[in-house]
Amino acid sequence: MVSKMDVQNCLAACLLFSKEVGLSSGSSDLSFLQIDWVKPPNDFLGTDSNPAIFVNEDTYRLLSRFHPNWISNKTIALKEKILDYTPMLMVGIIAHEAGHAFNISKNISNTEANAYIFEIECLRHLYQTNSSVLADCSTSDFLKYFNLRLPFYTKYSKQNPRLEALINMINDESILTTATKPAIAHFTPQQTIRVFIPIGSLVYQRHRFFIPKTGIDKSYNSNRSSAPDNQKPLI
User: Fold this and answer.
1) In this structure, what is the dihedral angle of CA atoms 86, 91, 97, 102, given to the nearest 10 degrees?
2) CA separation for the pair 221, 229 (Å, rounded)
3) Model confidence pLDDT, tens digit, residues 7-65
4) How far is CA 229 from CA 20, 110, 113, 139, 222, in A?
5) How are beta strands 34-38 and 194-196 bridged, if at all?
6) pLDDT tens for residues 185-234?
7) Domains of the chain: which residue ranges?
8) Least C-beta-crowded within 10 Å: which of 32, 35, 72, 232?
9) pTM of the model
10) Contact status, residue 119 vs residue 37, Cβ threshold 8 Å
């Protein structure tokens, strides 16, 4: 189980990665991103199981009247059920949605494939720099998470050499050991993220974070530095 502060700190770490490290397309300052928490009965985010969504222009145009705090291409909407997820799954969700914001800010195609690239690169950078937001995530958690997400990565990898290369690293379990660009700055939990009181709404968007129907163990907790690989799996 995680807290809203954990979520805010995770987003701050993803924003720092975007600004100070970035991808081959460059870096980007995403400090404009804000979180809007949505609550029942108006918390539909594309599918009943979808816990998060990046509010793009289409979603904003259709549904912003239900969410006065939303800003087009600058808001991540979250359901509170994300607080019941494992730390690893929460971090992955936030990294993925930040990836959509990165695509928009760099004026590149805002596809799932490009968001997956940001998600994977950000997560392994946080791992390799021993980010404090990963205090409850083990090496085993990371590998299980990437394998959980692998079917989605593969689905959108066609004609995307970088995503295909990352998939190959996941398959041979070198994803966490292959060097990434060095960190330029260190994350501090005190970094401020704007959070708004939820009003709630009905929302649909094609870009969303999917949770496999196999289910997730929401109570799992471990320590990355000491957790053995035979601990209770995420799925």
Assistant:
1) -170
2) 13
3) 999 999 999 999 999 999 899 999 999 999 988 777 767 666 789 989 999 888 877 87
4) 32, 35, 29, 8, 10
5) parallel
6) 333 444 444 444 343 333 333 444 555 444 444 333 333 333 333 333 33
7) 4-203
8) 232
9) 0.78
10) no
